[in-house]
Amino acid sequence: MGMGSGRRARALIAAAAGVLALTGCAGAPGAGPATGQAAPPGNAGAAAPGPAILAGFPALPPGPGLPTGTVDTILLASCMNEERGLSTLTRMAAHPADLAILMGDNVYGSATPDDPALSDLRSAYWQQAQRPEFRSLVEQVPVIAVWDDHDFGINDGGGETFAHREVARQMFTRFWNLGAGSPQNHPDGVYGAYVLGDQPGRRLQVIVLDTRFHRSPLRPTDQRGAPGRERYLPDADPARTMLGERQWQWLRDQLMQPADLRLIVSSVQVVAEGHGWERWGNFPLEQQRLYDLIADTGARGVVFATGDRHYSSLNRTQAGRGPQFPLFDLTASSINMPWSAGQSETLPTMIGSGYTQENFGVLRIDWEDRRLTFEIRDSEDAAVLSHTVGFDEIGAGGR
Known about the structure:
- By secondary structure, the chain is α/β, with parallel strands linked by helices.
- It has a single domain (about 60-395), classed as 4-Layer Sandwich (Purple Acid Phosphatase, chain A, domain 2), CATH 3.60.21.70.
- The protein is about 20% helix and about 15% strand.
- It is built from nine helices and 14 strands.
- The strands form three sheets. The chain has a six-stranded mixed beta sheet. Strands 4-5-8-9-11-10 form a six-stranded mixed beta sheet, with no helix packed on it. Strands 6-7 form a two-stranded antiparallel ribbon.
């Protein structure tokens, strides 16, 4: 999704960052973390330094490890601009949970996509690393993160047409401490899978997809701004890809793994139909391939969580689409980049209405009563959207 400008202070920092990076200096613009001490060097075994721009690049301090026991509550968020207020993030961090998943646009650094040093992205990471609200979350709650366009480095971008995607990938893996042994450290993206829960019948698989590194170019609209055709049109060219063939094969393997409930995280909406922004439906053959893969592998209990839209909603596959069981897609967006007041949309896949203001999502798993609740919570941590489904409705409970 697009964003406004107004980066005068950012530009000064970015310029300094670029000079330091290209000279290989181990220092960095500003004081580093919020403590005012030197920038954290990152964990041992973190992603190997690549180009000189990674010299002195910030890495988050180690936070709590992923939960080993049963996961009951998952926080979901996206679209978090480091230059804006983060009070909603503070509310989110205070909400009791076992896990937080940051679903992309975790920084806004896409203003200089033609710069080999990606100076704006580098500066954005530095600023976010110093924000106490952000640090509070990652130091208190186990976090899984994946990127979207603004932390990939180019607005609405993806694939080989973005010359600096490898630089962006190394920045992401360094910042999030994704070392060589991380499930998300791949030479072709930041996708990964985790199985959480040590009790039989309560295994949760979390799959995070990379919808940027190999994504094909989008087909531009012929009526910019028109309802349903706002920016892009569906493209049924069979050569188009959302994930790239290697990630597709990896995903098949993951869906074959035993699990009682599966949460698939995609930075862009999977299920939503009827709008012309970024979504899987822009490549209808790829969207159908995903649905067919879930059906062919026999994966059950699949739900989606997505971001990107600056607008929250819950969508469900329409009759005749997808595998045997309906697929639900909770979009939680955004922490501090909401839609303009008065905007809304009505889609054929939506359940109820959406929410346009600052928010975060919560996924509640009731293993005992076998039900799953999707929530959107506002900037004061009050529920503004809630929908519960039984495990039987989504086929959860093992293969």
